[in-house]
Amino acid sequence: MFNVDYKNLRLSFNDFREFNDKDIPQYGEYCLVELKTGDYTAGGWHPSGNGDTATGYFLRGTADTVNSEDVARWHPLDRYDLTKSLEEEGINWIDIGRDEEEGDRNVQFEGFKSILDRKYPKNEQFCLLIMKDGSLAAGRWNKWKRKAGGEFVYSSAMSSYSSNKVWAWTPLSVDEFFAMELEREKERKLEKKLNKNPVADPELFKYGMDINVYYEKALEKLLKEFDWATITMMKKVTPVWQIAALKGKYVFGYIEKSYYDDSDIVNPWTEGSTADEFIDYLCKYTHNMVEQSNPKGKFKFGTDINVYLEKAFNNVKKDYHWLDKNMLKKTFQYDIQKVDGDFEFVIRNWNEKKFFVYNVESAEQFIERVEENYKSTALMANERVSSYEPKFGHIEIHGWNLESYVFHKLKSGDYMVSVTAGDRVTGGSRDFFITPYCFEAKDYEEFLDRYLEIVPDYSFGLGKDELLPDKDLKKFLGY
Description:
This protein is α+β, with helices and mostly antiparallel strands.
């Protein structure tokens, strides 16, 4: 690699320009930026308006900008290649920009570290970078949550430099994002210190420090109303309550993972101050789930999964007449199994072995969900043999633009329609089967009345006014 010792290296930036209308960076140019506060950061220049004036912002990352009104001076970064200087032994000073130093235009950076030595910045720290190709850059350190290392984010959409492309780094000034991270780190350290020996309020934990004891006491009350209640049913309500340490005290709480560093965040129960009040709260918290988990209603047709699947198959077969059970071998698979002592509907992908609990409230709801899966499977198995796309202008639907609306004739002789809508960022498509009931209509107008109950104009863009005059569509549909 390079022969220079980065530990003793100093970079002298000698080409700072006053930030004004007469001297501004090129659009997108990445610059070292001196703020009016005397702090240093970096970013890519994004002018506003026609770009002729020094108004706009320097982009450092997604939703991470520096407004032009806060900038005093700027210095080009990505115009320089330090390769030749870094390849020479004994160099500890490199001038960036002009050869001469003019007054206070010169700014120096040192204290470089290397990730090769497992020296990482602190999370959210914005750094000046010397890349392995000899170029200069900058970025905010984004620490990976579940393994060592990270990346330097430098632009929007998490555009980043992989750490293995960086030769050396040194921190720039503390900004608001890094300051917040330092405060969070301070709070985490204090919390860890306080929680070394947490105390327990005797009124709050008079039944001990096992959360299951409190669930069991709540269960005793629920059993008076629901003789089928179990703790398994109660714990289907998430998040599940625990006993955890918070600010040096034990609390009833639930735990979430921090978005920033994957650490545990304890959310305390705050609706009372005694053990019995918490038990009453558990009853209220789990009441609806237990009520909906009555096995007599949920498994009203018994615990043989084939009974439920047969009902779903027969219901779908009425309209999707080409459906056969061979088509269902490579779709979701279902079963009824005991999970923690309670019967549950479970589901798995056809090519996987592990089942997962399929949370439904009733036998009818389970059958309806299976039917939706079978309908989708049937449509995918029925080849499209021809299509017709009605002409339409610009149509906006609840903030989305109608992009595609296509009728398809299927190999079985049936019809479906595919609708796609979206905006500049996202979008979605849906397929709708046109049921035989629609084609039982006496004429095309009545057909559309029935069809628009499936694909209503207020949701999907085209209505009777647009479709009724379309003679080619009428002919395509067999009228």
